[in-house]
Amino acid sequence: MSNTLTPFVYWAQTESQVTLKVDLTDVKDLNVNLKETLLQVTAYGQGARGLNNYSFSLNLHSPIDPDESNYKVIDREIDFVLKKKCNGWWPRLTSQPQKPSWLKIDFDKWKSEDMDDNEDEKRDILDDYPDMYDKLHKEEFGYRKEDFAKVYLVIYNLCQFVGFIYVLAVMAVRYSRDGPDFMKETYLAVGTPVKFVQLLQFLEVMHSMFGYTKSSTLVSFLQTGGRTFILFLMIDAEPRMQTKPVVFYLFLIWGTVEIVRYPYYITQLLNIKISFLTWLRYTIWIFLYPLGFVCEGIVMLRNIPYFEETQKFTVSLPNIYNFTLHFPSVIRIYLLFLLLPGIYTVMSHMNQLRSRKLGKSTIKRKYN
């Protein structure tokens, strides 16, 4: 008979329970001995070294309740759920400081219990317990492992921050030199970089769609799509609108919002807590978002007679597609049925975020 080997075991915890995933398939002859501070498992199955007898023993850090604990065998693994006798975070799984080489940390399952009932709002150990996260990563890998998504998001947010800083700096320098006369030249001076950073913002819709960020895909699309509509169809497409002072104010509002938002995202990714920046991120929108929506509404209202005159983007009959489109009517419909509901959706979302971020204590439970 083959020698007994040790399978890979992956563990995670919440405040009330510990989960174990034993990496064995086609399990037979499973024998489990579960006590308050001891777990012993023997089985025959397909592991890292093929079909063989596997076993392991764990002296647990703290007592569990064997009667409330359970396990199940599925095709790909053996899953254990161990109920802690006393709620609280364990600094490690085993009683001894030295971690066995076959015991791994299941980072995908680490989360805070207070968000379990809301699938959209689940948070992980990186957000809730950063000190513990760092310690576990160093224990597992010998260093803090940075994933590709995080590095990419830091670079993206930094590039957007630099872009908007450039736009505001040019506007500030030109305004200080030329005074109010600069307003009619705003689009000529910074229109191209604004269009560039605005197009890049569509990546944020993709970030939420593919799980890189926890933001709402709908809200990201409403914000990005609304700005793009204003910038490219309302301003870029109508030269007479480009010289209006409202463009200056609109770019100023957009830029001010973004030079706060992107540094906040960077600090969150790097696990740097700056209370004032957090407060500013979730407070400044209260004043600037309504002003921005007013400016966008003014742009659209003033553009209606321009597009009535030029018939730009209007499709008239007859044409080969037998299709008609009156663009000034599209603007009116956008104002009534997209802009106003969009204002409500975005501001409701921001108000919920503000209540969550600022309405509760920001004191984190620390790893001891």
Automatic annotation (TrEMBL):
**Highest taxon of the source?**
Eukaryota
> What EC number is given for this enzyme?
4.2.1.134
| Parts forming coiled coils | none
Q: How does it sit in the membrane?
A: Multi-pass membrane protein
An example GO biological process term is: fatty acid elongation
Is Coiled coil among the key words of this record?
yes
Transmembrane region(s): 151-175, 247-267, 279-300, 320-347
Q: What compartments host this protein?
A: Endoplasmic reticulum membrane
Instruction: Cite the SUPFAM superfamilies for this sequence.
Output: HSP20-like chaperones
Q: In which pathway does it act?
A: Lipid metabolism; fatty acid biosynthesis
Q: What region holds the CS domain?
A: 4-94
| Swiss-Prot/TrEMBL keywords | Coiled coil, Endoplasmic reticulum, Fatty acid biosynthesis, Fatty acid metabolism, Lipid biosynthesis, Lipid metabolism, Lyase, Membrane, Transmembrane, Transmembrane helix
UniProt-listed InterPro entries:
CS_dom, HSP20-like_chaperone, Tyr_Pase-like_PTPLA
One Gene Ontology cellular component term attached to this UniProt record is: endoplasmic reticulum membrane
As its record notes, the protein acts as a catalyst of: a very-long-chain (3R)-3-hydroxyacyl-CoA = a very-long-chain (2E)-enoyl-CoA + H2O
| GO molecular function terms noted in the UniProt entry | very-long-chain (3R)-3-hydroxyacyl-CoA dehydratase activity
Family of this protein: Belongs to the p23/wos2 family.
Q: What does this protein do?
A: Catalyzes the third of the four reactions of the long-chain fatty acids elongation cycle. This endoplasmic reticulum-bound enzymatic process, allows the addition of two carbons to the chain of long- and very long-chain fatty acids/VLCFAs per cycle. This enzyme catalyzes the dehydration of the 3-hydroxyacyl-CoA intermediate into trans-2,3-enoyl-CoA, within each cycle of fatty acid elongation. Thereby, it participates to the production of VLCFAs of different chain lengths that are involved in multiple biological processes as precursors of membrane lipids and lipid mediators.
- Output the PANTHER family linked to this UniProt entry: VERY-LONG-CHAIN (3R)-3-HYDROXYACYL-COA DEHYDRATASE (PTHR11035)
The entry's protein name is Very-long-chain (3R)-3-hydroxyacyl-CoA dehydratase
